[in-house]
Amino acid sequence: MTQAQDSQPATTDDRIINATISLIGSDGLGAITMSQVAEHAGVARQTLYNHYSDIDSIVAAAVDRHNNESLALLTSALSVAQTPTEKLEQMARHFAMVGAHAGQALEVGSGTSSEVRHAVDKYKHAIERIIQDIIEEGQQTGDFRPDVAMDTDAVLIRSILNGIYELAAAAPEKASDIAASGARMLRAALH
User: What integer pLDDT is reported at residue 5 of this predicted model?
Assistant: First the structure.
């Protein structure tokens, strides 16, 4: 981002999304109201309705933006890793870092709208694709066991990464140790 982009004021939509992400981090996914978002974004409630039809659409947009930013950071972190094992270690560090900065674990329960669940599912599938690519590369290079089941193990590894995220969200001061333990567990699962 350039200096000129940094100095530009945030758009109304950016303020709404950033306020929503902040509220999700502090209050949890299910506790957000239109009034809270309007207050935190510094806009009128009618302005929210000019941009979004309801709280679910705001939350879905915020979750989607957060996830896209997380994927961009992950892609950048993976670009410096040389081996499939290093890529898994980078994933563990990434999930610990994101969890440590989240404030609390994102719980997507049965009361969540289909729009929000779709945004979360899209992220899960993107993470699983990245994991599958790493597994495939690791099997081709001989770094990983040949009996690793691509689809099943990708879901299980994503679950371990979610655990790293949740632990780091609950104890951000231990994020580095959590990442190291998680990386050790991922290496053991695939070697």
Answer: 46
Q: What is the pTM of this model?
A: 0.83
CB contact at 8 A, 96 and 179? yes
**Going by CATH, does the domain composed of 56-190 fall within 1.10.357.10?**
yes
Q: Is 170 helix (H, G, I), strand (E, B) or coil?
A: helix
Burial state string for 150-169 with b = 16 or more CB within 10 A and e = fewer than 16 = eeebbeebbebbbbbbbbbb
Give the list of residues 6+ apart from residue 35 with CB closer than 8 angstroms, or none.
45
* All structural domains of the chain with their residue ranges: 56-190
DSSP for 64-126 reads HHHHHHHHHHHHHHHHT--SHHHHHHHHHHHHHHHHHHHSS-----TTS-HHHHHHHHHHHHH
